[in-house]
Specification:
InterPro entries: Homeodomain-like_sf, HTH_TetR, Tet_transcr_reg_TetR-rel_C_sf, YxaF_TetR_C. Keywords: DNA-binding, Transcription, Transcription regulation. This is Transcriptional regulator, TetR family. GO terms for molecular function: DNA binding. This protein is mainly α. It is 79% helix and 0% strand.
C-alpha cells in the first residue's frame, strides 16, 4: 500500500510543479508521466477523472500547503503589516529563484479554470480558504472591514505575482507588499 501512496503523491507533486510553471493547458498528461518517471497506467488508476481530477487535487495539495504557510507567517509575525511584507518578499524571492516560471500554483491554474468546472471549483474553494485565514487574522487583530481587507490582500498579491512573472521583475511584489502594509497600518489606527 505504501508504494501506491508514493506513486500517487509523486504524480500529484510532479503535476503540481508542471501546472504551476506551465498552466493547465500547457501541461500534458504524458509530460507528467515522463517527468515523474511514472508508469503509464498509474495516472488513470489513481486519478480516474484524468487531467481535471489531477489538477483539482494538485490545487488542494499545494494550495493547502500555501494556506498553512500564510497562516503560520501571519500568526508568528509581530504584527500583520510585517506578516504581509514577509509573505510578499518570500514570494518575490521564490519567483526570482525559479527564473519567473513558478507563480502562484492556484492563480496559474485559475486562469484556465473557467473552461474546466472541477478545476474552477477547486480554485474557488482554495481562494475562499485563504480568505478565511486572512480574514480571521485581521479580525483577531481588531481590524474593521476584515472581510473586504482580506479580499483586497489576496487580489493585490495575486495581481502582483502575475505582473512580476510577466515583467520578469519582482518590483510589483515589493511595491504591493509595502502598500498593503501601509494600508494595514492606517486601518489599524482607525480600528
Amino acid at each position: 500500500m505504501a508504494r501506491r501512496t508514493d506513486t500517487r503523491e509523486r504524480t500529484l507533486r510532479t503535476a503540481a510543479h508542471l501546472f504551476r510553471a506551465q498552466g493547465y493547458h500547457g501541461t500534458g498528461v504524458n509530460q507528467v508521466l515522463t517527468e515523474g518517471d511514472l508508469p503509464k497506467g498509474s495516472l488513470y488508476f489513481h486519478f480516474p477523472g484524468g487531467k481535471e481530477q489531477l489538477a483539482s487535487e494538485a490545487v488542494e495539495l499545494v494550495g493547502g500547503e500555501l494556506r498553512s504557510w500564510i497562516e503560520a507567517i501571519l500568526a508568528d509575525a509581530p504584527d500583520l503589516p510585517t506578516g504581509v511584507i514577509t509573505i510578499t518578499e518570500s514570494m518575490a524571492e521564490h519567483l526570482a529563484a525559479s527564473d519567473y516560471r513558478n507563480g502562484c500554483p492556484v492563480g496559474t491554474l485559475a486562469q484556465a479554470a473557467n473552461d474546466v468546472e472541477g478545476l474552477r471549483a477547486a480554485c474557488a474553494d482554495m481562494f475562499a480558504s485563504w480568505h478565511t485565514v486572512i480574514r480571521d487574522q485581521l479580525t483577531q487583530h481588531g481590524f474593521t472591514e476584515a472581510d473586504h481587507l482580506a479580499t483586497t490582500l489576496i487580489a493585490a498579491i495575486e495581481g502582483a505575482q502575475l505582473l512580476a512573472r510577466n515583467q520578469r521583475d519582482t518590483a510589483p511584489l515589493h511595491a504591493v507588499g509595502a502598500m498593503l502594509a501601509h494600508l494595514l497600518k492606517g486601518q489599524r489606527t482607525c480600528a
